UniProtKB/TrEMBL annotation:
Pfam families: Sigma70_r2
UniProt superkingdom: Bacteria
RNA polymerase sigma-70 region domain location: 25-88
NCBIfam families: sigma70-ECF
Protein name: Sigma-70 family RNA polymerase sigma factor
Gene3D superfamilies on file: 1.10.1740.10, 3.10.450.50, Winged helix-like DNA-binding domain superfamily/Winged helix DNA-binding domain (1.10.10.10)
SUPFAM superfamilies attached to this UniProt entry: NTF2-like (SSF54427), Sigma2 domain of RNA polymerase sigma factors (SSF88946), Sigma3 and sigma4 domains of RNA polymerase sigma factors (SSF88659)
InterPro entries: ECF_Sigma-70_Domain, NTF2-like_dom_sf, RNA_pol_sigma-70_dom, RNA_pol_sigma70_r2, RNA_pol_sigma_r2, RNA_pol_sigma_r3/r4-like, WH-like_DNA-bd_sf
Annotated spans, Disordered: 1-20
């Protein structure tokens, strides 16, 4: 990943009364929330984990804690790992991601939808989608090491592995997140540019730009779960597809490009929860066809990773 979000500095231990303890905790709340959100993918669930971390600190106090930042991060990470391992939590999160008109995902029961959307955008919706496909220990190891520069020796006790095994765990997660290590081939780079042009025109509701990027005989197919308002399972022709896309530009506003089954496509992911995937076929400089996948089994069967950095990013 490019860049790291560094953790807090080591603090000297000090005696603290209830008010001072609360002040010291609040100084770390933002960092803990960021860690928990990337692990859980839900702002409300992240806030639950942070609140439980505070309750544990308030019960134990900070007497004897030499590195409060590290102690808090360890506690919140273990809580997140337990939540990720919970079958009930994972079922709730999966179900929550299929509600396009909800205020948020299943975890957003107490979160500000606007704040959740902004946070998902700042983190990267595609990244949150890919993180959601990692195993619990993989996700915790990757988030702590690759996003927050936590040493493997500190992560190992959290995931209950040796530092060497933890490093392998993070490496496996990194491969899933980042996809193939080699730069995109020229044809994939070109494919991505066409997909990005389609996404930009869709977000802007720009009919003329859409007509320019769609092939005259373009075909749009969709799962039944992706259809609403009497839309057809298949439509043909650039104007028909462009006009529908303008009507549905709300979806484009929460979409990001990603590598889907080896080719650039689009993920529609409100709050970082995968709702739809657009598998796009490009011929020449235009979109020849695309399929909107909404079926949960089909979505789970897709291989999704982040697009590698390359010429298309400049």
């Amino acid at each position: 990943m490019d860049g790291r979000e560094d953790g807090q500095q080591v603090e000297a231990p000090q005696e603290a009364g209830p008010e001072r303890l609360a002040e010291r905790f609040e100084a770390h709340r933002g960092h803990l929330r960021a860690v928990a959100h990337r692990m859980l993918g839900s702002l409300a669930d992240a806030d639950d984990a942070v609140q439980e971390t505070w309750l544990r600190l308030s019960r134990t106090g900070d007497d004897g804690i030499e590195n409060l930042a590290g102690w808090l991060r360890t506690v919140v990470s273990r809580l997140c790992l337990d939540m990720l391992r919970s079958a009930a939590f994972r079922h709730e999160e999966a179900a929550g991601g299929r509600l396009p008109d909800s205020a948020g995902d299943a975890g957003a029961r107490a979160a500000d939808p606007e704040e959740e959307a902004l946070l998902a955008e700042s983190v990267g919706r595609a990244l949150l989608v890919v993180l959601d496909r990692l195993g619990p220990a993989e996700r915790v190891a990757f988030v702590l090491h690759d996003l927050f520069a936590v040493p493997f020796a500190d992560i190992a006790p959290i995931v209950e592995r040796t530092p060497v095994a933890t490093k392998k765990l993070a490496s496996r997660a990194r491969h899933k997140v980042q996809g193939p290590p080699a730069p995109m081939a020229p044809e994939l780079t070109h494919h991505r540019r066409v997909v990005d042009a389609f996404l930009a025109a869709s977000r802007n509701g720009d009919l003329e730009a859409l007509l320019a990027v769609l092939a005259p005989d373009v075909v749009r197919r969709a799962d039944l779960g992706a259809l609403s308002g009497g839309l057809a399972a298949e439509i043909r022709g650039a104007r028909a597809v462009a006009e529908e896309t303008v009507l549905l530009r709300r979806n484009a506003r929460v979409a990001e490009s990603a590598l889907i089954d080896g080719a650039p496509g689009l993920l529609v992911a409100p709050h970082g929860r995968l709702l739809l995937a657009l598998v796009i076929t490009v011929e020449g400089d235009r979109v020849a066809s695309y399929e909107v996948i909404a079926d949960e089994d089909r979505l789970r069967g897709l291989t999704v990773s982040l697009l590698p950095q390359g010429p298309a990013d400049h």
